[in-house]
Write a sequence for this structure.
């Protein structure tokens, strides 16, 4: 009874603190808005938002510093269900959810709903199959469970390696989001922005571990959900007259988008004819690049030399012509200077040139499921949609940094309740993201397309200056008018640029940036802590020095966290992929490595050490191998299996993982009686109590 009373008092204190915090944050936004009206430069306001939020998180991290092991690893197991749900929501709503999801839905339409369906369904799996049982187990990490359940350090070590791989891939996406936001709103170069933003990540997790991360994530959730909702509501009112974007986007904006899509695809209309003129140019460029690639394949270096000779002869002819065309001469000389030096470079460059052929395709209907030109392409899209949903669902239920959150609640009952709260808080964003994708698409189709190149809106040049892959417009057919086919908008831009697209005050842009920063930082904190804890707790303490004192364990964790963060920041600066791909890859890796071993470890007493080793190694191995041979970043470009994209590689890993656990378990002796009793203990959680198995 005393514990229950203490928990209630703690809950009331937290509610009061975060109410004051929310009021203070709103007051801060109002103050920045006043400063904007007084003429303070936008860059100063950008720095204000960036550093004010980082200082806030640093303050929470400093106040939450701890030297207690249970506080550092699992926040003292006293986080109420409501606040754990908010922290989980912030942990979950990463840069991918906040920045990338609406952009993907903007670009892919119906097909992008795989992310919403997969991630939402994943929390149902967490509630049904893992959260209460892992809380009943009651130690610190996922490798802890694997080591105890399967009896030995080999499963634990494989779990550590897998946790590092999938968490490291995930954290790169978050640091990328931090760098993108920092560079846009401070004017810093992207690589520098990555390391500046990294400071905000470290101040939260470095001092207080899970305790600091948890209370920081609650604060971050409040910021990110407010930041996401305000511009969406504003844009909805502007375009439809209705503040309920989740309804008006479908009832008002989507029919208008559909009508414009049909017009763009009809060459008999003025807009359609203009679009077709641009598409024809892209088809010609793609055909020319394809001819060069075929020539290169047949002639190699000799063909390359001949092509360069033709350019040189063209430049000479232009210089000696009776009519002096300075622009043509300049273009010819530039083509010679940039001409590929080797066959390999030429092949890569011409493959890229050939890819513009995709921009010659008709506009894909936003509301049409699996839109395709052929039955074969439609079937491929369906397979990839289902594969992605599967990977995201199962990956959600296997990500170590998410599962660790359910170690922090006071009881098994509150672990179950926190899953419900997590779903509720996440749903608020997920039901809004598809609506935002539609509203932004309407803005682009209605306002940007058909406008003059001489009068482009400021947000176009602002974002083009950050990264040309995110925003670029070129007058391909030289008519001075913007066509849809001439626009390139990266998926990572849509949410961050929404306030500017909607014509909102700069303070709202700063607010959205603060929300995106909160989303990226909250997830990065949890991921870095997962990696550091796996190394310090599961490798150093459990496998190397079981007698290590508390201070040494915490110092090791903090040191490793710093090293991992710096390595991740460096890899991020190389831009290995867009945010959503990196996140999706992390889910496939986690699903392949962990889910079969975790679920069968809870529900099948016959599962044993050899089964876990074979299942985890084979599942993770095949998933990594498929990504390596099919993802363009690695340059292998092997044929896809059943045309499954690399982001869906988890379908192969999950299948082989389950097969490996089952076969490996059946061909080797059953687990000891002690381990089978542990399974029985974990399988039947006491919803009223907090039964642990000897957490250290």
């Amino acid at each position: 009874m005393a514990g229950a009373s203490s928990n209630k008092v703690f809950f009331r204190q937290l509610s009061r603190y975060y109410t004051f915090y929310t009021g203070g944050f709103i007051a801060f936004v109002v103050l920045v808005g006043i400063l904007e009206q007084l003429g303070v430069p936008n860059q100063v306001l950008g720095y204000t938002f960036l550093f004010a939020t980082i200082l806030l998180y640093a303050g929470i991290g400093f106040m939450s510093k701890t030297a207690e092991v249970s506080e550092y690893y699992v926040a003292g197991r006293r986080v109420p269900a409501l606040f754990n749900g908010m922290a989980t929501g912030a942990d979950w709503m990463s840069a991918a959810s906040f920045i990338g999801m609406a952009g993907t839905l903007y670009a892919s339409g119906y097909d992008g709903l795989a992310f919403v369906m997969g991630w939402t369904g994943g929390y149902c799996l967490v509630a049904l199959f893992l959260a209460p049982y892992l809380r009943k187990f009651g130690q610190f990490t996922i490798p802890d469970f694997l080591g105890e359940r399967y009896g030995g350090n080999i499963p634990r070590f494989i779990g550590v390696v897998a946790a590092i791989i999938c968490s490291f891939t995930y954290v790169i996406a978050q640091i990328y989001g931090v760098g993108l936001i920092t560079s846009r709103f401070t004017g810093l170069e992207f690589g520098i922005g990555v390391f500046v933003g990294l400071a905000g990540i470290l101040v939260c997790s470095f001092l207080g571990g899970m305790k600091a991360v948890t209370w920081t994530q609650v604060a971050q959730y409040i910021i990110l959900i407010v930041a996401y909702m305000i511009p969406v509501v504003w844009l909805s009112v502007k375009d439809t007259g209705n503040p309920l974007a989740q309804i008006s986007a479908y009832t008002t904006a989507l029919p208008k988008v559909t009508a414009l899509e049909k017009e763009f695809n009809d060459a008999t209309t003025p807009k359609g004819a203009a679009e077709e003129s641009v598409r024809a140019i892209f088809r010609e460029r793609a055909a020319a690049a394809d001819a060069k690639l075929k020539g290169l394949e047949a002639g190699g270096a000799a063909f390359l030399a001949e092509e360069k000779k033709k350019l040189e002869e063209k430049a000479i002819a232009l210089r000696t012509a009776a009519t002096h065309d300075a622009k043509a001469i300049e273009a010819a000389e530039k083509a010679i200077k940039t001409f590929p030096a080797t066959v390999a470079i030429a092949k890569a460059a011409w493959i890229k040139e050939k890819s513009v052929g995709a921009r010659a395709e008709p506009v894909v209907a936003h509301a049409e499921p699996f839109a395709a030109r052929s039955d074969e392409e439609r079937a491929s899209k369906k397979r990839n949609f289902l594969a992605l949903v599967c990977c995201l669902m199962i990956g959600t239920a296997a990500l170590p940094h998410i599962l660790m959150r359910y170690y922090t609640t006071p009881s098994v009952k509150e672990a179950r309740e926190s899953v419900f709260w997590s779903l509720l808080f996440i749903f608020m964003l997920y039901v809004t993201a598809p609506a935002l994708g539609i509203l932004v698409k309407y803005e682009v189709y209605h306002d940007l397309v058909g406008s003059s190149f001489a009068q482009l809106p400021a947000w176009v040049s602002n974002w083009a200056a950050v990264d040309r892959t995110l925003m670029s417009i070129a007058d391909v057919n030289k008519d001075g008018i913007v066509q849809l086919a001439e626009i390139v908008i990266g998926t990572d831009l849509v949410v961050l640029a929404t306030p500017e697209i909607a014509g909102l005050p700069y303070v709202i842009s700063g607010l959205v940036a603060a929300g995106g920063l909160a989303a990226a930082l909250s997830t990065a904190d949890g991921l870095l802590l997962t990696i550091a804890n796996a190394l310090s707790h599961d490798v150093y303490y459990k496998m190397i020095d079981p007698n290590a004192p508390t201070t040494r364990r915490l110092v090791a964790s903090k040191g490793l966290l710093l090293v991992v963060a710096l390595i991740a920041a460096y890899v991020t600066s190389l831009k290995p992929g867009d945010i959503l791909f990196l996140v999706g890859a992390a889910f496939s890796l986690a699903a392949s490595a962990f889910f079969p071993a975790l679920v069968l470890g809870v529900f099948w007493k016959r599962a044993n050490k050899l089964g876990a080793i074979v299942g985890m190694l084979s599942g993770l191995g095949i998933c990594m191998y498929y990504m390596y041979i099919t993802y363009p970043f690695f340059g292998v470009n092997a044929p896809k299996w059943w045309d499954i994209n690399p982001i869906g590689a988890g379908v192969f890993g999950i299948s082989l993982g389950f097969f490996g656990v089952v076969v490996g378990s059946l061909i080797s002796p059953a687990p000891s009686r002690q381990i089978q009793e542990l399974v029985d203990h974990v399988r039947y959680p006491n919803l009223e109590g907090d039964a642990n198995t000897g957490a250290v």
